[in-house]
Amino acid sequence: MKSRTGNRFILFNVLITITITALVGFIVIQGLLSIMLSNEVDSLSSKSYSANTLISLSVSGASHHSSPEDALKENAVFLAEKISSGNSLSTVIFDTNGAVLAQSDDRSDYTLYSADAVTVAREGRDAYIYTVKDQQNLIIYFSPVTYRSETLGVLMFSCHVSAMEVMSTAILRLFLIAGAIGAAASTLLYMFSHRRLLRPIRQITDFFSRKISDPTADFPVIDRERGDEVDTLIRAYEDMQESISETISELDMERSNFKNIVSSLQDAVFTASSDGSVLYTNTAADILFSRSRPEEMIPDYQGMIALASRSHGRPSTETDVDGRTYLIMAVPVKRMKEDDAVMFVVRDISAVRHAEEEQNRFISSVSHELKTPLTTIIGYTDLLKRRGTGNRQVTDKALDTIEEESRRLQRLVDDLLQIGKMNSYEFELVLTDVDLDSILTQVCSQMSLTGEKRGIPVLYDSRDVPLVRGDGDRLRQCFLNIIDNAVKYSNDNEPVRVTAVGMGDHVEITVRDYAEGIPSDKKDKVFEPFYRVEDDRRRIDSSGGYGLGLSIVKNIITRHGGTITIDSEEEMGTLVSVKLPARGGKEAADERKN
């Protein structure tokens, strides 16, 4: 490529040099020929003037015995030879009608110029013709012969211009030689400039070629003068390279940040080619696909790729895998040098679906709990309207029932409000040093009275119970609810055992009953709002709750930094364990006892 370009440049220079030389030579030769022709014409004009003078004298000497025309005809031969020998020119004398009166050269036929002679005689002024005859360049010069302002005939000179031809040929040869020398000089000049002056350009070109295959190639050291074209070019390249490097660094940083962001997403993100091959995965996707491959997990995997690529839309679908629900979205991805790809976003929406189910169950439970007492209240209200208040016994029973159901509704609303405040963090704990042993003693004493009717004693045992930092009223509410549930669901004549033991940095409280127990598949749900173990709700009477108590208890215990667990087996009873952080451990308990 370099050789072809150099040869073309040399050929171009040679052609330009030869063309310019030829053009200059042509102009010079034409100029010289024009000058020489002009000089020759001037010489012929001078000779014609001398010849006309000679003819006039000859005609004047013979005019006393004949007319001027006749005198010219009589002496024409003599005059022609005289003029020709004196000027070394072929001489011809015509009359005014173009007839040849005399000619010094008998070998040529000059009648060819008769018409030109007539024209010169008629116009009365000199004229010449530059022509070629017998491969020789001739100047044919015409001059009218006048005597006393009367045209008697025409004098013609025939002059060879061989000297002009020789000179023009010599000049042409010189210019051809000069053109050859100029072409050679131009070639040498190009070779010199190509090696010396264009060397920086060649170095830059070679560097760009290397840069394509090796981005780390260093820019070569180039000889340059400050402010010249090469220096300007190099400075422009350096500025451009700096700008490109900054842009690449920014893009690399943005790509790294984007990759870190995508990697930190909880959603699984991966890209796939048109044939389904996985090109990139983030951390969540790696974990997800360690259990199943994309084509196994995503319904109509190839169909989603084709739809996203073809329509440039965002198809989505849901699927259930290993008990989890996933929302899958596909987004087309454009790539520069490769086929387009598709990015998949896999989001675990199990919590959302569970929340929706919980919301529906919550609404259903609330509706059920509201419907039962409201139905009772409406029924007794209708009874009073129909029968009036005349029957005192019926009236009292209706009012008692209405009051009791209204209180149930009030308890339900209070519990709902309390749960709402807890979930929105609107309730505050009034923290003090709480004597937990004293609270448990009081609660167990109160619950013993409740269980006395069914022969259920509440037995309390404590050992080294430290003070705790907490809200005494809230903690009292928690243990009342836990022990009340134990008494409520215990079998008649079976005890409920409550213990509190200091364990160094915390205190553990257990509540043990010997009732039917909780099925293993339902233990994890007892802390959910409105959940009760009895599916048919047959054991829930007017003294029963709404499945909100344990939910409230767990929230309060958690807010105190503690934990609550339930261990239960069917027909073996239930053990509820509560752990709360102690204020000062065993030393605080000893201090309280002393």
CATH topology of the largest domain: Beta-Lactamase
The oligomeric status of these chains comes to single chain
CATH architecture of the largest domain: 2-Layer Sandwich
Q: Could you name the CATH homologous superfamily of the largest domain? A: PAS domain
Task: Please tell me the overall pLDDT.
Answer: 78
Radius of gyration: 65 Å
Indicate the structural class. alpha+beta
Number of E-state strands = 17
In angstroms, what separates the terminal alpha carbons? 106 Å
Indicate the overall shape.
rod-shaped
Instruction: Name the helicity range.
Output: 40-55%
CATH hierarchy, class of the largest domain: Alpha Beta
Largest sheet: 5 strands, antiparallel
Strand content: 15-25%
Low-confidence stretches: 535-544, 585-594
- How many distinct helices? 15
Q: Domains counted in the coordinates: how many?
A: 5
Strand order of the largest sheet: 2-1-5-4-3
